Fold each of these.
Amino acid sequence: MTLARFRTLCLAQPGATEQIQWGADAVFKVGGKMFAAACTDFTQYPEAKKCSFKCDDDGFAEMVERDGVVPAPYLARAKWVSLDRWDALTDREIAAAIATSYQLVRAGLTKKVQATLGVVQ
């Protein structure tokens, strides 16, 4: 996985937007709520996690058992994980995790906001 591929997968979700926050993090949102984030500048932030995303309860428990996957700083209580390196999960696993995170966040939006986002694939 690369940052460019991660960005493409996030922005492929219906209604997804991207903005830079907290210095150099690309934050991906749906309906104004964050569903994924990735560091864009490792020269300035060499210790930063590669990316973060939300999991369901079972997914969170399974993910944090994996080498290179840790509870996300500040967001672990909301079942977010972070990757220490891009190869901590396969590209397919990261793509599935992005889709799951998006679905979880989207499901928490009001029905009115959800209706404006388009069809979920």
Note: The mean pLDDT is 93.
Amino acid sequence: MNKILVTGGAGYIGSHVVKQLAQDTDNCITILDNFSTGFLDTIKILQSKFNNIDIAEMDLCHWDKVADFMNHGRFDAVVHFAASLVVPESVHEPLKYYLNNTANTANLVQCCIAAGTNKFIFSSTAAVYGEPILVGDAGVTEDMPLSPINPYGRSKNFSEYVIRDAAFANEAFRFVILRYFNVAGANEDGLIGQSTLNATHLIKVSAETALGKRKKMSIFGTDYPTADGTCVRDYIHVDDLASAHIKALDYLGNNKEGIFNCGYGYGYSVREVIETMKRVSGVDFTVEEAPRREGDPALLISDSSKIKELMDWKPEHDDLEYICKTALEWEKKL
């Protein structure tokens, strides 16, 4: 039996990973979440389908409690999602991000090492790259310089250093860092999806607008150095991202460490995403132009060849219309 702790497992990405982990009856999953942004109802839905999921309500800022919990849990692996992740908010509340994302991650790593939990999967972000200089159709590779341009990206970058340094100093400690590009969509069976309130994610916002939950939506910045003036991002379906975590756990069976991009290797502009959602929904909803948001890079596209080669990761949902359709169908259920 593999005892796996998933911090932030009641959140959007975490819950999709929990679902895939739970499908293997050899796994016993414990979700640690403070439910500040995660949803207990989501986990109860999963518990109704699978009998190998437990819940521990706890905040990672309570370091002594976390240490006791880890010592008693004797987990084989930790998949760490719990974090704050809204870029504009990080610009105005940077200390929240350094405390919740970096300091709490450092303590969690320390607790893992002390408890003998030596497999650690970290939910990082493409924001650690900042605004990389890309040539032609080339994407960001894992060995490019890291130069985050907002506190969210820096908090994750610092956390990566914490994990890498801890592994260097502790031979038994193994890790995989997954740098996500833009995650979207929902589970095809309609069981779970993105339930975040006041979401800032483009595809979810456009789905809400298509369904009349918002009267209109905004394009933040139309003067970027891109083909149509709007930001370009590499969108990855949440189920494909979840499968990368399963691959990462397998990878640590024979490897000490790894850092991998999670994306499809090409991007879509904000305007292209909105037009796709309009086509999928059949609704010509209202879109307004607005000033740039603080901390948004113009272009972020991944080179995902490393994870495909070393982990044999094979995405199954590389289709923007499919991503938008599953997001829309989930939004109809909420």
Note: The mean pLDDT is 95.
Amino acid sequence: MIEPYLLEELAAFSETGTLAAVAEKLYVTQPSVTRGMQKLEQELGVHLFERTPNRITLTETGRMAAKQAADLLKANDDMVAAIRNFDRNQNRLRLRFTIPGPRLLFNEFFEGTDAGGNDTTDGIASDGRISLTPTLLSSDEAGTVLHTRNADLVISNENMAGGEVASAYLGTEKLYVNLDKFMYEASQPEVSFAQLKELSFIVLDDIGPWKGIIQKEIPQAKFLYQQQPDAFVEITQYSNFPYFSSSLSIHFDPSRAITDDDDRIPVPLSDPAAQMRVYANYLVEKEPLALPLIRRVREMWPRPDDPLSRNG
């Protein structure tokens, strides 16, 4: 078996063109490189170099051997990287979301844990082993990232179970509209989308499938979309525009918490489209890591009839 350092020296010679450059690149002496190339020729039983008093070059066989050496070295590096990535991902969950509300719940779940992953909660490792990606996925992307192994668990309003993907129901997210307390609708136990048709709303742009739902259910309304969460919060604090929240954002987003000095009142929407079932879709191979996390999240999920309380 040819020793890897000989292949490395041959590949380096093909790249640099001189023994001196190889020695400098690999941090060895030039005589050591010379002996190594002679040893490689002896082991292969072929001439790899044309030698003249002032120059050494590769033969045709040498050029072919150098390419094979470079390919073998790359294959070795790729193998090492693949094994290390596989080992690292065996004990890690990469989470993606298509809906913003559940992401708020998961953020609270990991609040206060240390970034190195030394803390655990009910046997669930902290964010050192479980990573949350902030950007939302589209529905089309959700299945793809699982099948291409670019995510291990996707939180979505779709049940994507099938083949190598399993799915578990987490809970139902309910939509609320925050209305000025002096509006007639604000005094009602619930309102319908139809009752909101003449209003203008401040809406956070990145709200996943909820965006399509409100546009479809209230086509006559005006939506003033805000891309920056900070700008959205500031406008909702210093204006009387109604805005939407959910049973998850009311509970887990401090910027949308109900306070005594708030002039808006969150009123639940009565339409079936205002309730969204949420699923955890995960790779079957990740089940030992996914199921304990799913159980804990279910315990934290707010009851559908009361956004300010939660189970557990």
Note: The radius of gyration is 30 Å.
